[in-house]
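Saturday, quiet lab. Running sequence design on the structure tokens for the scaffold JK sent over.
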């Protein structure tokens, strides 16, 4: 049985944050769909619906989708680190950097959507995640 690892806390924070973005997306998107009188069939494909919604409305959905992309690697890496006893110290710090950065990325994308700011945050969180993955490999290959 897997024992509690400190790295579980940033994992659950990012999971809960993903739900925050889901609810934010719904609270903004559904009223806009109603306001524009869009029929359900017009949202059959997300990409087609996105073209019919104002950009500021779509930003929340875009970010929600982003939280279901690269963070899957974070979850796998963090769980692996917990399993092999590497879920503390530097890896825990990197996990918090990743999670904090992803939350900041969400707030930027969902509100002002400055691409270079988002990219910088994405790059920094990606580096933190890469170091976590390398640390995992080093523990396993010892």
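Result came back. Writing it out in full:
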């Amino acid at each position: 049985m897997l024992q509690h690892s400190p790295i579980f806390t940033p994992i659950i924070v990012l999971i809960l944050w993903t739900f925050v973005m889901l609810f934010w997306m719904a609270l903004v998107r559904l009223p806009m769909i109603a306001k524009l009188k869009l029929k359900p069939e017009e949202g059959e494909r997300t990409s087609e619906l996105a073209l019919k919604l104002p950009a500021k409305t779509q930003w929340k959905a875009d970010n929600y989708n982003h939280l279901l992309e690269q963070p899957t690697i974070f979850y796998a890496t963090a769980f692996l680190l917990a399993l092999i006893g590497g879920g503390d110290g530097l890896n825990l710090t990197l996990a918090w950097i990743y999670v904090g950065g992803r939350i900041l990325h969400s707030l930027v994308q969902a509100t002002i959507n400055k691409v270079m700011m988002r990219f910088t945050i994405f790059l920094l969180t990606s580096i933190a995640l890469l170091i976590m993955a390398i640390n995992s490999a080093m523990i396993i290959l010892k």
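Notes for JK: The mean pLDDT is 96. The longest helix spans residues 8-35. Ask whether to fix the surface positions before the next round.
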